[in-house]
Amino acid sequence: MDLKLKLFGCIALAIATITSANVIPASAADTYQVQQTWKLGGDGGWDYLKVDEPAHLLYITRGNRVMVVDVQTGKLLDEINGFQGVHGVALDTTGKYGYISDGSAGMVRVFDRTTRQVVASVPVGQNPDAILFEPTHKYVFAMNGRSKDASVVDAATNKVIATIPLPGKPEFAATDGKGNVFVNIQDKNELQRIDANSLKVTATWPLAPCESPSGLAIDRASHRLFSVCDGKVMAVTNAETGKVVATPAIGDGPDAAGFDSQRKLAFSSNGEGNLTILHQDSPDQYSLVQTVNTKRGTRTMALDESTGKVYLVTGDFGPRPNPTADNPRPRPAILPGTFSVLVVGK
Asked: Is it true that the peptide bond before 213 is cis, omega within 30 degrees of 0?
């Protein structure tokens, strides 16, 4: 072999060897996993989570308070106290105010996001649960589970301007940012569409084969809604026609959902102890990317689209109590000091 050719071959081989040594296989690079666990402790159960992406904060509802966590350090920064039984947190688009559904008090609590002090309390319906901020009219929608209606609060005045009857128990809600609000009706297995302009229900859509829909997420660009349901099913609904277009499989015991518009991924957090990740191949087709093992009880989640990370919460559980007539399906007690946030990412 010519000496120059042999020398060229050796150099090429060396370059290839160095390059391959620094390349992470695609399968490893695309794998989601639990990256961190932040043990925060504290007593009480939990419900909704909410990420404030620009501020790098995670709000966690904990019964009589809301925990405020720095997602860059995993440290508890503060707690907003003085509630009777909180469920959800909504944030306005100015970065100034937040809204907490205090279910046991029948109140929406307005707090200053800088001082983290409650500045107003607005009486709403019975047991406000899901809550969201509708940006086109600057209204706060509180979905009242016990009175089966939606209270609409004008954020400019902190006054209820309408109460919208619903046909059953509302669960999670979502908005398309263009004046439509969607809410799962858990005990009717259906979706309701509310017009923020007329403050009326404008559509009722069955979710069959979905049963007991809870978590709800939205893809605003493709007009798709993602309801997670019992029976290990996610119902994907066309938000313009109300047609269920796909029913991909998920894990058992879901309570929350998310959609990452940048990465075209749909998420379901499942109480059995895993996170289902689906890829949106097209608006009507979804394929399983991964089932990430998390921990028993990780039913609620919040997605940070700016980083692609998912935050889930749970604790360690004691034995389940024996059923009684008053409590036929008792929940096991949370062991003290075990409450933690799990951070899932690539």
From this structure: no
pLDDT tens figures, 138-165: 999 999 999 999 999 999 999 999 999 9
Supply the pTM of this predicted model: 0.89
Partner residues linked to 292 by β-bridges: 275
Q: From CA 222, how far away is CA 242, in angstroms rounded?
A: 13
Q: Is residue 337 part of a domain?
A: no
Domain of 131 in residue numbering reads as 44-305
CA separation for the pair 40, 176 (Å, rounded)? 33
Number of domains present in the structure of the chain = 1
- How many angstroms separate the CA atoms of 226 and 217, rounded? 5
Q: What is the CATH number of the domain that holds 212?
A: 2.130.10.10
* pLDDT single digits (tens) 180-225: 999 999 999 999 999 999 999 999 999 999 999 999 999 999 999 9
* 340 within some domain: no
In this structure, is residue 326 part of a structural domain? no
What is the distance between the alpha carbons of residues 249 and 278, in angstroms, rounded to a whole number?
Answer: 9
Residues 173 and 191: their CA atoms lie apart, in Å, by 9
Instruction: Judge whether 343 and 309 are in contact, CB under 8 Å.
Output: yes
Of 143, 148, 52, 40, whose CA–CA distance to 92 is shortest?
Answer: 52
State the amino acid at position 90 in one-letter form. A
Within-domain flag for 344: no
Instruction: Determine contact, residues 323/283, Cβ cutoff 8 Å.
Output: no
- C-beta separation of 139 from 158 below 8 A: no
**Measured between alpha carbons, how far is 209 from 69 in angstroms, rounded to an integer?**
38
User: What is the Cα Rg of the chain in Å?
Assistant: 23
């490893």: which residue's tokens?
A: 28
* Distance of alpha carbon 333 from the chain centroid: 24
Helical spans, DSSP H, in the chain: 3-21, 26-29
**Cβ atoms of residues 312 and 293 within 8 Å:** no
